[in-house]
Amino acid sequence: MFRGLLIDKTDGQQATAVQQLNEADLPAGDVTVRVAWSTLNYKDALAITGRSPVVRRFPMVPGIDFAGTVEASADPAFAVGDAVVLNGWGVGEVHWGGLAERARVPGQWLVPLQAPFTLRQAMGIGTAGYTAALCVLALERHGVRPDQGPVVVTGAAGGVGSVAVAMLAKLGYEVAAVTGRPQEADFLSALGARQVIDRAELAKPGKPLDKERWAGAVDVAGGQLLANVCAAMRYRGVVTACGLAAGMSWPASVAPFILRGVTLAGIDSVMAPVAERLQAWRRLAQDLDVALLESLIRDIELDEAIGVAAELLEGRVRGRVVVRVGAA
């Protein structure tokens, strides 16, 4: 038996609680991991609170990320004792996830822990930070250089945004950080943002084409914010879109794309190929300052996850939340 957070649904009513689970109930997979740390992402908070139908199979252990040590393996790529990390692949949605002391998954879903990170720090990065790295890589792949102009990051005080700001600043980009929490201006400046913009400036319906401001963008918001970001891109600017915190709709025009040659690059972290995952984690190890990472992390216990999930959806969480699951 082991402890875990379990979501179940009976007669349309969802119930979520930390309880004792049976190892025999773990789903299929060729690697069993003793989970040390997990984390809370936006998707996890939606699943735990039931505010969105993230969970597609019940009962379900939520948690789209985990970091731990291999306990048993039939996959030759992983041996007992290996430190491993998992992000995405549908865990916490259709396959039991990381908010429990044990996890069993296919070996091809795992990546080795990258030095110099500890298991806890890997969860301080989590899917949010790994997604931020995918956005940075996409900007580079599309030719956005620091000398071409500022890069704007929406949702900058959140998990994806804060890591994106820190990485881009270290790489020499001039970062404009958009947030709905003006009290976080000092925090964002400490991460490397040169300018902090009130989200309200970009939240209202705008022009199909606006004044050219940014060479690149990392957008976690979607909705009207994404439309306004696209409208204010410089000629041949690149927007990476990875979230929908401000809505799934996109009230935009084609003008930025056909008149300024703007590129909108979609970023999916859930099913990204292993090679891209490894590239992103290696770049995080290279370009994310560990001291800055520590400033982003808030530690909680497994029993606190339900309450903190509600905080996250209410926009009251700064940076990254890591959950002590089975760590000593």
Report on the architecture of this protein.
It is built from ten helices and 15 strands. With 328 residues, the protein is α/β, with parallel strands linked by helices. It folds into two domains: 141 residues, Quinone Oxidoreductase, Chain A, domain 1; 140 residues, NAD(P)-binding Rossmann-like Domain (Rossmann fold), CATH 3.40.50. Helix 1 packs across helix 10, helix 2 packs across helix 3 and helix 2 crosses helix 8. The chain starts with a strand and ends with a strand. The relative contact order is 0.16.
Summarize the structure.
The chain is an alpha/beta fold.
User: Runs with pLDDT <50, length 5+?
Assistant: none
Number of helices: 10
Classified in CATH, the superfamily of the largest domain is Medium-chain alcohol dehydrogenases, catalytic domain
CATH topology of the largest domain: Quinone Oxidoreductase, Chain A, domain 1
CATH architectural designation of the largest domain? Alpha-Beta Complex
Compute the gyration radius: what is it? 20 Å
Question: How many independent structural domains?
Answer: 2
Order of helices and strands: EEEHEEEEHEHEHEHEHEHEHHEHE
Task: Classify the secondary structure makeup into a structural class.
Answer: alpha/beta
Output mean pLDDT.
95
Key traits:
2 domains, Rossmann fold, 10 helices, globular, Quinone Oxidoreductase, Chain A, domain 1, 328 residues, alpha/beta
